[in-house]
From TrEMBL:
Alphabetical list of Pfam families matching this protein: DUF465
Descriptive protein name: YdcH family protein
Organism: Sphingobium cyanobacteriorum
InterPro entries in alphabetical order: DUF465, DUF465_sf
């Protein structure tokens, strides 16, 4: 159960990373969106670390 939860968090983390990369590579990236995505990614990383 716990392992699948960590896997799901990891998948969400990777998805956010992909969205950050995609937005950052645009000619005029939305800085507010990038900041929001980075905050979400950090929260997921903190939750994954707390699970171990």
């Amino acid at each position: 159960m716990e392992n699948s939860h960590i896997s799901a968090l990891s998948a969400k983390h990777a998805g956010l990373e992909a969205r950050i990369k995609a937005e950052s590579s645009r000619p005029m990236p939305d800085a507010i969106l990038v900041a929001s995505l980075k905050k979400q990614k950090l929260r997921l990383k903190e939750e994954m670390t707390a699970q171990h």
